[in-house]
Structure formats: structure tokens, C-alpha cells
Design brief:
The chain is α/β, with parallel strands linked by helices. It is 51% helix and 20% strand. It contains 12 helices and 14 strands.
């Protein structure tokens, strides 16, 4: 009897130890899951007042949500000092990757190197910063060239003798290359054309004022090429303000960045637009940052698709929904591939 009681007591102790050990292991496993650090990506934009960056962030946030990634967004407000400070703050916060739409690529070199020294991956959007891991963008020269080729064909078909106002932005390499590509295509096309005025635009009010000045000095202008939507939208406003018929002009958008540019084309206030689909760019920025974090070999540039869209094929690439024009990703992919 006494021997049996000893055996019961022994097995009871063993059972308690086994249960305790199992419970302890389970507790450590749960604790490890709770302690797992959420991936965090910082996004330092150029200027959130522009729809291009608003929609890049929309696409990036949507993709980040799908992946369970925390996305921190700052507005550079076209100020390099503000943007440098934002990147420094991301480094202090210990983010896993930083996506930058550079205000001034040279001003960011030092802080990008600081991020790299901390093991933080750096992805650039549109303009590369020395030392960054990769760039998300497209060939601005080629896109400008494709737009110029479209316009040359359009002008030939309609017997237009182009007198052109180019609203550029020379201080940004990507914007400069768009204008250069556009002019290169016209030069190779064989059409007779004149660049009456080439001046900085970039922002809507600046472009409106520049267009008014250009039309006053050169009333023969009948074509406007802007390096972004705001440039051409400012020109459209100037033409209306001068009480001139929009039908007398070929007005070419660049970007179709958001509701304003897309509406202008949809309603026929513009003739065409090179669409860069910023929502697609934002998605690609997150994907490339995650590739870098996960140790994948990165291409030097992740190329995002672009298409010249006219009023005639607008509904192929954009879906109207509650007053907005959403990107038809399937149509864009089909065209790009």
C-alpha cells in the first residue's frame, strides 16, 4: 500500500513538471510572437500639395496595409532642409526602410549614407540619390520622347504648324529630361515646328502666370507641353482667362496624377496626357522596399508603366467611381506587357 502511494506521488510530480514545462514553452512562444517587430517604412515625399504625391501615398498605403507594414509619411513641402530632417527622424526611429522623393538629391547624400550605416534600406522615387539601394521610376527622356512622337503624328494628321510653349522645371533632372525627350522626338519627326517659349512651370499658379506672359509676347502659340499636370492645368486656366477658345490649342498633360488632370482630359479641356499612374508607383515603392528588407538582389531601377492616354481611350485605363477616376490596373498591365 505504501509502495503504491509512493508511485502515485512520483507520477503526480512528473505530470505536474510536464504540464509546467509545456505551459512554459507555450508562454515563451506567445511572447516571441508578441515581441516580433512590425516592419516600418518611412516615406519622405517631395510635396503633398501635389496630387502626384497624394496618389503615390494612396497606392503605397494600400500596399502597406495588405502586407501588414507600418507606413510613416512626411511632407517635404519642396524644402530640402525639411526633407533632410524628416529622414534624420526616420533614422532615429529605427525604421527598416526609407522611401524618398528627393527635393534636392545632392542635399540628401550625407543623410542617406547615415541611414545605410544603420542598416536601413533606402529607395528613391523618380530621382536617384547617391548611395541609395534602388530607384522606382521610369525613363523621363523616353516618356517625353513618346509624348513628342504622339504629338508629331497628331499634328501631321491635323495639318497643325506647332508654335509651342514648354512649361518645364530645369532644376529637377527628371523634369528637364521630359522636355528634352519631347523636343528630341519633334526634331526627329520632320514636322515644321517652333518652340516659341521654354520657361519653368511646375506649379499651377506659376504656370498660369508664365502662360499669360507667353501668350502676350507670342500670340501665335497654339501648343502647350507641361512637365506635369499642374503646368498644363495652369496653362488651361490662362487660356480661359484670356477668353481664347481651348479648341485653338493642343494642350498636353504629363502625369495624369489625380482628379484634376484626369478630369481635364475626360472633359476635353486637354488633348492627351502621358499617364504615369502614381498609385502604381506607390505600390512599386513598397514592393521594392520590402525586397530590399528581405535581402533580395535589387535592379538599379524598378520601372513603372506609362501610357499616352487620349480622350478617346480614357475609359480603357480609368474607371469612374463616385466622382473619381481610378486606375484600371489590369488594363495598364495588359498594355505594358
Amino acid at each position: 500500500m505504501e509502495e503504491s502511494m509512493k508511485k502515485i506521488a512520483f507520477f503526480g510530480v512528473v505530470l505536474v513538471l510536464v504540464v509546467f514545462a509545456f505551459t512554459g514553452c507555450k508562454g515563451r512562444s506567445a511572447g516571441a510572437n508578441q515581441d516580433k517587430k512590425q516592419t516600418t517604412i518611412g516615406m519622405a515625399t517631395f510635396m503633398m500639395a501635389q496630387e502626384w504625391y497624394q496618389n503615390i501615398v494612396t497606392g503605397a498605403q494600400s500596399r502597406a496595409n495588405e502586407l501588414g507594414v507600418k507606413l510613416l509619411v512626411t511632407d517635404g513641402n519642396n524644402d530640402s532642409a525639411i526633407q533632410v530632417q524628416a529622414v534624420e527622424n526616420f533614422i532615429t526611429q529605427g525604421v527598416d526602410a526609407i522611401i524618398i522623393s528627393p527635393v534636392d538629391s545632392k542635399a540628401l547624400i550625407t543623410v542617406v549614407q547615415q541611414a545605410k550605416n544603420k542598416g536601413i534600406k533606402v529607395i528613391c522615387e523618380s530621382n536617384m540619390v547617391e548611395g541609395a539601394d534602388a530607384k522606382v521610376g521610369m525613363s523621363d527622356f523616353e516618356n517625353g520622347k513618346v509624348t513628342g512622337e504622339w504629338f508629331a503624328k497628331y499634328a501631321k494628321e491635323r495639318n497643325i504648324a506647332p508654335n509651342i510653349l514648354i512649361l518645364g522645371y530645369k532644376s529637377l533632372e527628371n523634369c528637364f529630361n521630359r522636355s528634352e525627350g519631347f523636343k528630341a522626338a519633334l526634331g526627329a519627326s520632320g514636322i515644321n515646328y517652333t518652340v516659341a517659349v521654354e520657361v519653368d512651370g511646375g506649379f499651377r499658379e506659376a504656370s498660369l502666370n508664365a502662360t499669360i506672359d507667353a501668350l502676350t509676347a507670342h500670340p501665335e502659340i497654339n501648343t502647350v507641353f507641361g512637365i506635369n499636370d499642374d503646368s498644363t492645368l495652369g496653362a488651361i486656366a490662362a487660356v480661359k482667362q484670356a477668353n481664347l477658345p481651348l479648341s485653338n490649342f493642343t494642350l498636353i498633360l504629363y502625369g495624369l496624377e489625380g482628379i484634376a488632370g484626369r478630369t481635364a482630359l475626360y472633359e476635353g479641356n486637354a488633348s492627351a496626357g502621358l499617364s504615369m499612374f502614381p498609385e502604381y508607383v506607390g505600390t512599386t515603392c513598397i514592393n521594392s522596399a520590402m525586397d530590399a528588407i528581405n535581402g533580395k538582389v535589387l535592379p538599379a531601377e524598378y520601372v513603372s508603366p506609362t501610357i499616352v492616354v487620349t480622350q478617346e481611350d480614357f475609359n480603357q485605363y480609368f474607371i469612374e467611381e463616385n466622382g473619381k477616376f481610378l486606375v484600371n490596373f489590369a488594363a495598364v498591365d495588359a498594355k505594358a506587357n
